Sequence to fold (734 residues):
Amino acid sequence: MDHFSITAKDPGSEARAGKLVGSHGTVETPCFLPVATKGFVKALSSEDLKMCNVDALISNALHLYMRPGLAVIEKHGGLHKFLRWERTLFTDSGGFQLVRNFSYKITDKGVIFKTPDTGKKIEFTPELAIEIQKKLGSDVNMVLDHCPAWNAPEKKVEDAVRHTVEWAEIAKSVFSGNALLFGIVQGGFSIELREKCTRALAKLDLDGYGIGGLSIGEPKDWTHKILEKTVKFIDESKPRYLMGVGSEDEILLAVANGIDVFDSAFPTRNARHRTIFGMNGKYNVGNMETLQSLAPLEQGCECYTCKNYTCSQVTHYLRENDSLGMRLASIHNIAYMEKFMAQIREAIKEGKFMDVYGERLRKLKGH
Amino acid sequence: MDHFSITAKDPGSEARAGKLVGSHGTVETPCFLPVATKGFVKALSSEDLKMCNVDALISNALHLYMRPGLAVIEKHGGLHKFLRWERTLFTDSGGFQLVRNFSYKITDKGVIFKTPDTGKKIEFTPELAIEIQKKLGSDVNMVLDHCPAWNAPEKKVEDAVRHTVEWAEIAKSVFSGNALLFGIVQGGFSIELREKCTRALAKLDLDGYGIGGLSIGEPKDWTHKILEKTVKFIDESKPRYLMGVGSEDEILLAVANGIDVFDSAFPTRNARHRTIFGMNGKYNVGNMETLQSLAPLEQGCECYTCKNYTCSQVTHYLRENDSLGMRLASIHNIAYMEKFMAQIREAIKEGKFMDVYGERLRKLKGH
Fold:
């Protein structure tokens, strides 16, 4: 494989370190992508993201298609320009957001829904998802998939797998250009359906595989069982992307199972809700205690926020609901996630991932 | 006068250019102060403000006294440190905000009110206003004044003048240190009371004089009449500060009458509400037309926003209600105001203020 190479394997787990090469540079894996769903990472400029050592972002084809619309982004010269982001850019098709946030109807051809802005009926097909992503010029395109609810009946999950595979075949057939094309494995919480979906997608020899339909409300032990099994079905030479995850403990577990790519709104959403990430676990700012603290948000942290502001100042801005506080807390949480991922990569290269894993989990659980 | 010197006078008006020297540097006048009422300029970092060429800010003693509280600011080493602002810092006492936003009772000794947070009763006296500002370490302290409503009966306005003068006497008697102390002229819309108030304050030989109680809802021609007369009562060797103003046309008129200092939340509030300032007048972003525009917010503008973002991008962020848009629009509007003030100073030095004044007013009125 040209675009993905594994540079180190951890002896104590399935964890691996690698390099994903796209048209806008190389991303070291395991990596974490902040979300720029609507064409920006909430509250942050691209300078802010670079200060946080972010190498890649993920945006959303369907969201951008609706607002601001493709014409606006094409006018700017593509999504990289619109985002002021010269580094690697993933785009999700938006199918997942669609079924979570809108009323819709799924047919064999795609998803039919009405845009909330104009009420216009849109038929969102696998062809359209690829066409949009090509126009956006993203480096990693995701196929349109069908993600059933975690507690959907088996018949629905079977339909979802069939759609997901058929739509991936269509996506592959209409896809062209320099971007990478990733499929998405569905199959709910049936190991058989997950295997069936993965094997069918493997025939398309896509550039990478996302795992969808996890961490969508199901019991944690279901997630872990399906994750562990599904990863094994995916060709180990391909990059594996656990979509929409997430938290540190989930990332550690998934890396141990061989996942390479993550994305989540978790760090920025937490920041806006006054939750700060740190090596000793998360904590809340915005109370009278943190208002007294002259320490940075995290001792020893090298991010812009921690180098320039006290915990007290950030607390004050957040208590007054000012967006400066949301920006500063988001910078810290994103920088924290990037540092966390760098530590994971380092540990894998040193063959010590399981030590780091155990130690982090103990810290996160407060032991 | 050491702290204030007039460097140029306009031949065609009362306009003058000068230098106001405080403990944290020199501010060229006429100048505009962005407001950091609660200990920050909404949505902006101090780096942002410096990029906008801001020389001085104004914060608010009473607001900071309530939240985050003096202890927090003293812990940081004073308000300059808490604001991360090494340049000139004015503080208003907060009396005006108090009577506008809280229920209160005015006695001869000060203003009694309950804090919205804790319900605690506070007696806000001229002594306390000075004590707070000393602890904050601001460069220009304002006395506590009594600002009646624009349509208050004459008896109330007379009381307000009496309080304002008595409280300024008390403020002067308890004041110590290197900061400058400014009085505030009240007197409603009676020229006689304005004169009486100014003459009484002049006996205290304060370092400068604010004009309060204007632009608080009264008809425009009242404002202009009182402004014109009141400025003349103030010793011309003293800096004159028109509090809470404001818009470009008001600033031009006031400069022509000899005002040196302005402050207002106008540029930042407008920015958050999608109104962009420009040499050709204000306009609204956030609509489908500005979403299409690849131009900067203002052609030829050198601010960070205009150098890096299209009007379309800023429109998109604002339409999606993201704080990135509020930050970028605020940067532009503040930079615009600073540029506008620099042009005014330049015009005064060149003896051409009235030409610039006339030309700007014509542009602002769209002729």
Summary: Residues 266-367 of chain B form one domain. Chain B is about 45% helix and 20% strand. The interface with chain A takes residues 38-40, 42-45, 67-68, 71-72, 75-76, 82, 84, 291-292, 294, 308-310, 312-313, 315-317, 319-320, 322-324, 326-327 of chain B (CB under 8 Å). The two ends of chain B are 42 Å apart (CA to CA).
